[in-house]
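Record 1 of the preview.
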Amino acid sequence: MKAIMYSLFPKFLQPLSSEQLAAAAAESGFDAVDLVVRDGFWVTPANMSEETEAFVRTMRQRGLRVEFATTGYSPEQLAHDTTPLEVMSASGIRSFRMSYFAYNEQEEMFVQLDRARASMERMAELCARYGLKAVYQVHHGGQMLIPHSLAALYVVRGLPAEQVGIMLDPGNQFREGSENWRRAIASLGPYLAAIGVKDGRYRHNPEERTAPAKGWQPEFAPCQEGVTNWSTIAEALRDAEFGGVFNFQPFYHTAEPERLLTTLKEEAAYIRHTMEMAMEKSVERGVKETQ
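->
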């Protein structure tokens, strides 16, 4: 199995300085930190070149890589202005999360998917010029066109996997009814570029038991506490020889930074242990087969 990069998406650590963020990520056991390009964060679209250089330097001083970026760039934006691609390529970024495709319930589904595929084809052409890969994250919600692995596969199949890929996201997909993870991973094949590492669970309010949802509400949760079977995912990734990004997205305890960091460290250790156990099972199976 290829090496997996454990990268932190630090959306809810925004109050930290880049130096504090680097220290927290290193302490929590990460290999890397995302380059988040957003207004109000460490790297902003208006000052991307200078701020990217400073951010990457700070992370590297702590032994952390910066090879995955979280952005909101669409193919149309990048075709108009290739500066973000130039900056990411020059800074050592290998792949980046791109914008989302919106769903319009008034328009036929496959018309929308075909249009999204044309956009992905355009994105692949742009990325080829700069040695980058655009990654589309599967996302929940009524406004999202692609909430499932098969819809994701539809818009990338046949395009160069070196330039476009998919991020499965158990935490997001839990809110859509989950997935058959083994089938999803096998179906995406070389297009599986990343796993969004977050989870979910249901919270029940008995006082709302007569409401349409019967009192049940989904919420994000640490992977060690959520409903997803990460052992199944780990074994499927092992069998697929996955070597992409584990993008940790701690969408919990967002109002309690210290508790968030403590839980995040536990979560990273849990996922590493789960992957190690999957690898040990593979070795044991191989030994038995040779006996």
